TrEMBL record:
It comes from Paraburkholderia domus. One of its GO terms (biological process) is phosphorelay signal transduction system. The modification 4-aspartylphosphate is found at D38. This is Response regulatory domain-containing protein. Keywords: Phosphoprotein. Residues 1-103 form the Response regulatory domain. It holds the Pfam family Response_reg. InterPro entries: CheY-like_superfamily, Sig_transdc_resp-reg_receiver. Transmembrane segments: none annotated. The keyword Phosphoprotein applies.
Length: 119
């Protein structure tokens, strides 16, 4: 996935992690603007990351991109603070378009764009 994100014009990968604790530390250290989270992680779940980011003082846009796209998963992620939710299988291009739009909007408004942290 990160390879596809790197190919998006104007998007930089600020970090990657497979475990929730490492992800949160990396997000905090890099100051990423966008975090792409899968529901299932090696050490924990994407819900843990979403809950932590929702209560963080650092503003970050959270996007869930997962193969676990049933209604229950979607509702749980949105309730935990995800701003976007995409099915990897059928909505991957839409997720990439959303990331590109966010990056371009931030740059157009003169805001610094740090990049995407992939969890």
């Amino acid at each position: 996935m990160a390879t596809r994100f790197r190919a998006i014009d104007g998007v930089e990968i600020a970090g990657e992690a497979e475990e929730s604790g490492a992800a949160l530390a990396g997000i905090d250290a890099t100051g990423a603007d966008v975090v792409v989270v899968d529901f299932r992680l090696t050490g924990g779940t994407g819900l843990e990351v979403l809950h932590s980011l929702a209560h963080s003082t650092s503003p970050v846009i959270t996007i869930v991109l997962t193969n676990h796209s049933g209604a229950g998963f979607r509702q749980a992620c949105l309730a935990a603070g995800a701003q976007y939710f995409f099915d990897k299988t059928s909505e991957f291009d839409l997720a990439c378009d959303t990331i590109k739009r966010i990056a371009h909007e931030r740059c157009a408004r003169g805001l610094n764009y740090t990049g995407v942290h992939h969890v």
